[in-house]
Amino acid sequence: MNLPIYLDFQATTPVDQRVLDAMLPYFSATFGNAASRSHSFGWAAEEAVGRARKQIADLIGASPKEIVFTSGSTEGINLALKGAAEMYAAKGKHIITTQVEHKAVLDTCKRLEQEGYEVTYLKPDKTGRVSAEVVEEALRDDTILVALLWASNEIGTINPVREIGKLCHERGVLLFTDATQAVGKLPVDVESDNIDLLCLSAHKIYGPKGVGALFVRRRNPRVRLVAQMDGGGHERGMRSGTLNVPGIVGLGAACNICQEDFQKDLDHGRGLRDRFEKQIFEALDHVYINGDPENRLPQASNISFAYVEGESLIMGFADIAVSSGSACTSASLEPSHVLRACDVGDELAHSSIRFSFGRLTSAEEVDHAAAQVIEAVKRLRELSPLYEMVQEGIDLSTINWSGH
Amino acid sequence: MAYSDKVLDHYNQPRNVGSLDKKKTSVGTGVVGAPECGDVMKLQIEVEGDMIMDAKFKTFGCGSAIASSSLATEWIKGKTIDEAMQIQNTEIVEELSLPPVKIHCSVLAEDAIKSAIADYKSKQPKNQDSEPQGEAR
Ligand SMILES: Cc1ncc(COP(=O)(O)O)c(C=O)c1O
Fold it and tell me: Which value does ipTM take for this structure?
């Protein structure tokens, strides 16, 4: 067992050895520009890109012509939202999204608001889920786009994309989904899931950082976007710039492995997650799962350890790499906007830790991590005035805190 | 975030963790902060004469908050009440090399000291001379 143990696979993943092997020739031996039409160097690169396009399309049930390469999901989100908003502005200027989105969506929406669009930010239920009914109520005649997180990067909650997509299609509204955390972990099929635009990112699925793809539907309806990056007209004019061939080959290989090992990865991740949670729940009281216990990513676990603060807890985990929903790990003093939107309560939000289990995580690592978490929580609860008060039978909500 | 060695030291070996009997008149208790802000400090002092003979703390908060309160108990033990009142949060910032985002932890520790002292003072019998005299009937 190598220490420290990485349990932050929702932040990023290592490049799978098979992916790396596929990429390596494209850095030097096969280095051509995929847009070079006049020689074999270019043709070889183009062929590799074409193969990758198909691998990606296959994983999500799309056609290769519907794949636009990007530098990752942040770019995919910017292109989809700004590109669609600009293209369809004459039709309407209303966009619907949710409060649980990644910052890339929220900040892009804020930008669009400054430019005269109107954005509705739907509040999820306590598990972080946004229902089709809630979306339906928000739809207006001038709504052009719904931007919906498929699976939450923080709490793993899965949204009912298919249902919401169906609704959008009935109403002639486009559905964009940020599937960064869903692809490779959930079955994704852009046809039956009624999706018009979808972004994914290689580094979340054991591919390299800095490469991703945007699915742009070509028929029923044909979606058009205004390019946000002007230049040589690559990617059917939607995203100019010489293609990152090794990165794209890596993304393709990563998608191919996700497809082939889908069930294996799923069972492995879920098995480890359940093994971890079982140990935590057996050893500790006052622990809560954030998100939807049923409808969440199988290899993710976001837990609030009441009466201990997340950052101090992470300091206590010498051997494990995880992240916290506590404010203290970021520059702002606000706890996670996702947990806030779920009405988790700031106190429990400050006590939340996100764990996720990867393709190469072992049961031994999970047991070691669980033991360390349990020990750190117990130690910090000895230090916690809140835990002491609760043990004395004091109801913390009755106390008039001084705040600051 | 990288922590200073002193923060790590206090986090790993916090000084004076625990509780004193808050019912005793010689004990002053200060509880500052709020759970929803992510930090609550409880700091207690036991006073003899005007000397702080013992100090204990419990803190819910980040490593810097734990270190600030641990350091505060270390500093006030053996000091007089007046001396303890002089402790400034900036001294804690300096001692622990706290970064700007963690300054509020030191402020909270200073508040905890003052609040514990105020509680102690409020428990002491009022000085007879200053007590308003009832009118003789
Ligand atoms: C849900 C979600 N959306 C978007 C992003 C941004 O992706 P990228 O790092 O590829 O820009 C991430 C990852 O941080 C994510 O988890």
Answer: 0.88
